[in-house]
Amino acid sequence: MRPHVNHQMKSPDIQLKRKIFLNREALAATNIDLLHEDCADNRTRNSLHFRRKKKKKRKKKKKKKKKKKKKKKKKKKKKKKKSSNKTIITNNSI
After folding, report:
1. pLDDT tens-digit readout, 47-57
2. pTM for the structure as a whole
3. Euclidean distance between CA atoms 14 and 20, whole angstroms
4. Could you tell me the residue range of the domain that residue 22 belongs to?
5. How many domains does the structure of the chain reveal?
């Protein structure tokens, strides 16, 4: 019988995790915590992303406000004055 091989440990992602874990153990002596660094990195990246999103939202709101302000004014039609001096021509007078 062959000795039992843990296939999980052979997969590359788990090997990588193992390496990281071992490196972390080694770096613990120099007070560098990889986990916290990763978290901080993610946090800054996310916050930048959300800041950009918020900026876009603000711009959209401003555009909407501007659109509301730009209502067209209706032009008033000038009424023509009727002159009373005109003679009315009817069929009977001819």
Report:
1. 777 778 888 88
2. 0.24
3. 10
4. 7-69
5. 1
